[in-house]
Amino acid sequence: MTETIKKRAAILLLCAIAAASLFYVSTLPGEFLITSRSSIDVESHDFSETILLGTGITWTGLWKPTILELDFLGEDHFFKGQEELTFDLFIDEDRHIGSISEGNLIPAYPLQEVKNFKMKEKYMNLIVRMSRKEDQMFLNNVRSIRIHYSIFGIRKSRIMDFIEEV
């Protein structure tokens, strides 16, 4: 009888240690940083072609997160989600795109959807695909980007100052 109690206590102790370890690992600090940003001169560009602009983002944590969605904080101090934007967002895992017209995009550099994007590396480019002058004017007035992400199923958010970080 005491042997069974010892086994159960050992199993319970191992489960508690595993749960505490998972909690500790999931709360390790990590953050997204904007490391580079591309832009175009709105006044000199006629927007006859769709433009792709890349923003370099680095993850500093140990475990790679899954990006759930992005929001932009504009000058009006309200966050705008992807469904409210007039331009499209993608991820360039290989970080090949800075600023390029869509017609010059090389097919070997596939773009990934932002929603539920599982990072494989610590670095990526957030790509904005725009075809209107108003899109660039909106981007010029973005104050912050909020990334919603998860690590081990635990949902988190990080706000990056778009103006000051680069």
Q: What do you see in this structure?
A:
It is a single chain. With 166 residues, the chain is an alpha+beta fold. The chain has helices spanning 2-26, 133-140; strands at 32-37, 51-59, 66-73, 79-81, 88-92, 99-101, 112-113, 117-118, 123-130, 144-151, 154-161. It is elongated, with a radius of gyration of 21 Å. The model has no long low-confidence stretch (mean pLDDT 80).
User: Strand portion, in percent?
Assistant: 35-45%
Report the uncertain regions.
Answer: none
Radius of gyration: 21 Å
The first-to-last residue Cα distance is: 65 Å
Structural class: alpha+beta
What global shape is seen?
Answer: elongated
Helix content range? 10-25%
- Number of helices, counting only DSSP H or I runs of 4 residues or more: 2
Chain-averaged pLDDT: 80
* Run of helices and strands: HEEEEEEEEEHEE
- Number of beta strands: 11
Largest sheet: 6 strands, antiparallel
